[in-house]
Amino acid sequence: MLKFFRFLLLTVLAAVFISSCDSNTEFVYPPEDVVNRVTDFYVFGDGKSFVYLNSNMNRKYDFGELVLMEIEDGELLFKDSLLVPSISGKMAVSSDEKNIFISTRDKNGVVKAKVSGKSGSYRLQYEDGTKGDSPDILKTKKEPYALVLSEDESKLMVTHILNGELSVVDVKDWKVIKTAKLKYGVTDILYDKNSGYFLASHKSSGNISLIEAKETVDEDFLVAVKELPIDLPTNGFDVRSLKQSGDGTVFYAAFQNAYNEDTYDYSYDEDTAPQIVTFKIADNALEIVRTLAVSGNLGEMAVLPYSSESAEDKETPDEEAADEETSGEETTDDSDTVEESGGNKTVSRTGDLIFISLPSEEKVLIVDSARNSIRDAISYVDDKNECKPYQLYVKSTGNTTGYLFVSCFQNDMVYIYGIDLMSEEIIKKIGVLK
Questions:
Q1: Contact 85, 104 (CB under 8 A)
Q2: What digits encode the pLDDT tens for the residues 157-196?
């Protein structure tokens, strides 16, 4: 009996000690405008307000952070910030721009932030009644990462980078209603309204997951998954980014080829080539439209649709040489429309600028989909700030204008550019966050 009471006393004392330690724990909070392993961006419809997501992947603080800023007269102005659980993954923003859904890989779940106010005075907050530094986390499978809203925005599709599951969240009831199995290591997901499918890419296979998710007549929710291979001209399996063309007819995938998960190296030979693949869905299969081989290990992509009715597109040296070889013969792309009036020729062109990061070569390639060729590149090799670009985001602000955000993830910097295809200087740096 004496031993029992002694054990009970020690247990109580231990509990009191642990409780005391917990109550005295001091969290390390990030500064309100810090740049810390940024993984995602979003530009609001007003064309000047934007948010970026600090993941806290380096565990420098006890929280990640959502930071709200404005671009005003070429200046980058801090407006607000909101703590989010560490380690943050990606974001999805509702069409009315009032809700921001954020995945947290470290806490295995999703949180929902609110945007209040109006343009110029937006504020970030959680639902009323939230206690503590961040809200309760809606638990999902391990390591949620890329996410996207359904067409009617009633469901949030959450993918998992660890084991490759798909979690379906009912936005109104804020609960997980379905879980499905995908291939390992989901890197990106998007919704194609033309086919009604969700598409997901993977870092461990040459497959694209084709996902059908819909309500049934008995008010159940159905998720059906097909794994469709892409028949690449060279060996490859590691897809780091998946995007849709501006007109919705094709998709772009960035393949890192011959990646060795044991040595973390990339090897290239005549049988392998990192490449940008353009494909489409045809009869529930993936059909390659074209490929473009590049060099270096590929990061993320971003796609900016354009429509230039009278712009004279600048040609790359390779394209100029190709024009000379045609000996004066006029060639046009499927996206080109040539009109002649009074002896003057106008070339109209529609297509996409595809931005793709190459961290190993410290640059961002700019590919013109209309010609399936590299139009230009942003190089950081000679920049005084070391930058290995990885995460990219673009926002269209007109037929030929937009913004480009480049996250130098490991270097804790963000480059922000203005894009104007009608200008002599197509890409112009607005500023750097660090």
A1: yes
A2: 999 998 899 999 999 999 999 999 998 889 999 999 999 9
Structure tokens at 256: 């890192």
244 near 189, Cβ under 8 Å? no
Cα distance between the two ends of the chain? 64
DSSP state of 361: G
Give the residue carrying structure tokens 């939230």.
130
Strand partners for 401 = 420
Give me the residue spans of the domains in the chain. 310-434
Residue 104 makes CB contacts below 8 A (sequence gap 6+) with 64, 84, 85, 86, 87, 88, 89, 110, 111, 137, 144
Q: What is the distance between the alpha carbons of residues 198 and 196, in angstroms, rounded to a whole number?
A: 7
Q: Is the peptide bond before 87 cis (omega within 30 degrees of 0)?
A: yes
Q: What is the pLDDT of residues 39-78, one digit of tens each?
A: 999 999 999 999 999 999 999 999 999 999 999 988 999 9
Average pLDDT over residues 202-227: 86
Q: What are phi and psi of 292, to 5 degrees?
A: -140, 110
Number of helices and strands in the chain (H, E)? 2, 32
Which pair of tokens denotes residue 17?
Answer: 């000690």
- Which candidate, 419, 332, 321, 320, places its Cα nearest to that of 371? 332
Contact between residue 426 and residue 376 where contact means Cβ atoms under 8 Å apart: yes
Q: Which pLDDT score, from 0 to 100, does residue 25 have?
A: 66
| Assigned token pair, 111 | 């949180």
Q: Is the distance from CB of 104 to CB of 137 less than 8 angstroms?
A: yes
Residues whose CB is less than 8 angstroms from the CB of residue 326 and which lie 6 or more positions away in sequence, other chains included? none
Tokens of 364: 């961002």
